Each structure stands twice: as structure tokens, then as C-alpha cells.
Amino acid sequence: MEDYALWRRLPFPGLRRGENLLRAGENLALIHGDLAVADEHVTQVILFIDEGIFRPARADVLGLLEEVISRLERFGVGMATEERESVDAHYQYAVLLRRIYAEFLRMGAP
Question: Is the CB of residue 19 less than 8 Å from the CB of residue 86?
């Protein structure tokens, strides 16, 4: 429940204007979009917490989050500390979503 409460308070990570979004053959804007899709799927947890309705997404949300996390790890390799702020915010948010959704699946499974 602590992770859930944190997620509900935490703003979705943003991208800075003019930020160098291309690195290691990856585009941070695309990762950002995939994280937004995962975040939308995780909103099923709200219905479960508020009303007890267990309706997991049809998509492989944990797989999507694992992919996003892996891409963020590769993206951030070799970055200077000051450049990592946005990447780290996205990474921490993705890890939080993974924990929340995994617990949701565990709690709601028959």
C-alpha cells in the first residue's frame, strides 16, 4: 500500500525541452511513451483498491515494464550525473509501477 500511495502522489516523469534525447541507439521520448502506456495499464490497480474489482490488463504489463527498465538502464550508461536526472526519474517510476502491478496480480489471483 505504501508503493500505491506513493504512485498516486507522484507526478509522471517529464522530459525537459532541448534535452538530448538520443543515446545508445535509443530515443528517450519513445521510452517515455512506452512508460505512459504501462502507467495507463497500471491504473487498473485503482479500481481494485477502491472497489475490489480485479481486472488485469490484457497486455503483458510486467513484460513491458521490464523492457522499459532495461532500455533505461542501457540509455543511462556512461551519462554524467547531471544528465541522468530525467533518466533516473523515469527508471524509478518504472520500477515503482512494476512493484505495484506485480503485487496487484499476486493479490487478485484466485
Answer: yes
Instruction: Give this prediction's pTM.
Output: 0.90
- The amino acid sitting at 45 is V
DSSP 43-84: THHHHHHHH------SS-HHHHHHHHHHHHHHHHTT--GGG-
In order of 31, 58, 92, the CA distances from 72 in angstroms are 8, 24, 10
pLDDT in tens, 20-54: 576 656 788 899 999 999 999 999 999 999 999 99
C-alpha atoms less than 13 angstroms from C-alpha of 18 in its C-beta half-sphere: 0
Residue with cell 474489482: 53
Q: What amino acid is encoded at 91 in this protein?
A: Y
Q: Which stretch of DSSP H or E encloses residue 22?
A: strand 22-23
